[in-house]
Design a protein that fits this description.
Number of domains: 1
Number of helices: 8
Radius of gyration: 15 Å
CATH architecture: Orthogonal Bundle
Order of helices and strands: HHHHHHHH
Structural class: mainly alpha
Distance between the termini: 12 Å
Largest sheet: none
CATH class: Mainly Alpha
Shape: globular
CATH topology: UraD-like
Helix content: 55-70%
Amino acid sequence: MTALFEHSPWVEARADARPSSGDRHADLMAVVHDALPEEQLALICAHPELAGKAAIDRTLTDASAAEQASAGLDRLSEAEFARFHELNAAYRERFGFPFIICVRLTDKAGILSAMEARLANDRETEIATAIAQIGEIVRLRLEDMA
């Protein structure tokens, strides 16, 4: 079974403990939005860096590996890999968590462009953006399960 949230089963468990609205995605995201700031940050930090160490040492979840492959991140040139590594490091240094984007809705060039552009954001904006992107990832994973 595909994990909807990376290494964060607490989101589904909390949603299951609440009355259902009939919209699983909305129920799950309500849990995320109601979570404490440190829980939201832990959820963001549970995601792997794009084209990062987890991709190389094969410790990505099956869902993340397939999603990164869908955007071509498993077939990077040395220059592309170096650019991802550089931007991942700059992003983590600036915000303290990994860059999150729904890779299934873009491609390598779009991801790199978003990484560069989002480095100009403030931390609060990036936390909100990361949560919104996690919502998109979960929406697509739910569609895959339907």
